[in-house]
Structure formats: structure tokens, C-alpha cells
Amino acid sequence: MARGSAQIKIMIRKREIFICANRRAGGAGCISQGSIDVLAKLIQRARERGDHVTITKNVCMGYCGEGPNVKIRGGAYFHHVTVDDVEDIFEKEQAFHAQNQDE
Ligand code: FES
């Protein structure tokens, strides 16, 4: 390969899962639908898994009636999330991250 023609592609993508922890007037919103329990489980599993995924409390995602709402950075939304969904979300985030490392 000729000098200077090599393409070096380095992709650094922060791995992050967002969870809405928004409280809305009148009791609606993700907190009243259980997002704090999901947040705690996400943090617990992120530490246990050790796969360098940041868990970030987010403001309203615009799906207030479908909470708790979770989103993978750059990827899918998840609605009506429970603590039982957390492991599946980590698996989907890991697959998404792996897929986007190859592009
Ligand atoms: S309060 Fe969670 S999406 Fe609006």
C-alpha cells in the first residue's frame, strides 16, 4: 500500500444508556411509572458487568405515557421498561456497540 493511501479509521463511541427520570406535574412521567427502580438496576448491572457503559439519568424523552423509557446512545428506545428488561437492554447495547465498531 502506498504511503499516505492507508485509511485509518478510529471510531470512539461512548457507550451510554439513558433512562428518563423525569417527574411531571400531576403524577405522570417516568418516575411515577417506576423509573427509579429501573435506574438502580441499570447502575447495579453496569457495575457487575464491567463493560464500561455509562448510565445517565435523562430528562423527558417525549414518551411520557409509555414509561419508564430507556434509550441506547445512538440506538433504540425501550418503553414500559421493568427491572426484568435490564439484562436484555444491556445485551442489545452490547450488540449495537459491536455492530457499530465494524463500520
Ligand atoms: S417523563 Fe419520561 S418520557 Fe416524559
Explain what this protein looks like in three dimensions.
- This protein is of the alpha+beta class and 103 residues long.
- It contains two helices and four strands.
- Strands 2-1-3-4 form a four-stranded mixed sheet, covered by helices on one side.
- It starts with 15 loop residues before the first strand and ends with a helix.
- FE2/S2 (inorganic) cluster binds next to loops.
Fill in the CATH topology: Glutaredoxin
Q: Helix-strand pattern, N to C?
A: EHEEEH
Tell me the count of domains: 1
How much helical structure, as a percent, in the residues? 25-40%
Q: Sketch the major β-sheet.
A: 4 strands, mixed
Structural class by secondary-structure content: alpha+beta
What is the overall pLDDT average?
88
DSSP E strands, number? 4
Overall shape: it is: globular
Radius of gyration: 17 Å
- List low-confidence stretches: none
Provide the spatial order of strands within the biggest beta sheet.
2-1-3-4
- Structure ligands: FE2/S2 (inorganic) cluster
Alpha-carbon distance between the two ends = 21 Å
If classified by CATH, what would the architecture be?
A: 3-Layer(aba) Sandwich
Superfamily (CATH H level) name: Glutaredoxin
Keywords:
single chain, alpha+beta, Glutaredoxin, four-stranded mixed β-sheet, 30% helix, 15% strand, binds FE2/S2 (inorganic) cluster
Give the topology.
Elements: E1 16-20, H1 35-49, E2 54-58, E3 70-72, E4 77-78, H2 86-101
Parallel strand pairs: 1-2
Antiparallel strand pairs: 1-3, 3-4
The structure holds FE2/S2 (inorganic) cluster (FES).
